[in-house]
Design goal:
There is one protein chain. This protein is mainly alpha-helical. It is built from 6 helices and no strands. It has helices spanning 3-13, 15-23, 27-52, 58-76, 80-84, 91-99. Helix 1 (3-13) packs across helix 3 and helix 3 (27-52) packs across helix 4.
Length: 100
C-alpha cells in the first residue's frame, strides 16, 4: 500500500498547504507522519469491519477500510475549496494541521 503517495496527492490538491509545508521544510516529515497515521487508521478500520462482517471478502474489507481511512484524513485537512475562493491559508493553519 502506498500511503505516502495517497497523502501526497491529497496535499497536492490543497496547493497552498502543500506549498507552505514545502517552503517551511515540513513537507517530508508531515508526509511521513500522516502516512503512518493513515496506515494505522486503515488497519483499525479493517479490524472493525472484519469483526462486524466476518463472512465478507478480505479484499472488500480492505478496500472499504481504506476508503473510510482516507475520508477521515480528508475531513482533517483544510478544504481545497477555501484556496479556490481566494482565501489564503495562513501559516498558523498549516502548522495547526501539522500538529494535529
Amino acid at each position: 500500500m502506498q500511503y505516502k503517495t495517497i497523502v501526497l496527492n491529497l496535499l497536492r490538491q490543497r496547493r497552498e498547504l502543500h506549498n507552505l509545508l514545502k517552503s517551511s521544510r515540513k513537507l517530508l516529515p508531515t508526509l511521513d507522519r500522516v502516512a503512518k497515521e493513515l496506515k494505522l487508521s486503515h488497519a483499525t478500520w479493517q479490524i472493525d469491519l472484519s469483526q462486524a462482517r466476518p463472512d465478507s471478502d478480505p479484499s472488500q474489507i480492505s478496500s472499504e477500510a481504506l476508503e473510510k481511512a482516507i475520508k477521515e484524513l480528508e475531513d482533517r485537512l483544510p478544504p481545497a475549496s477555501q484556496e479556490d475562493e481566494g482565501v489564503p491559508l495562513s501559516l498558523e493553519e498549516a502548522i495547526d494541521f501539522v500538529r494535529r
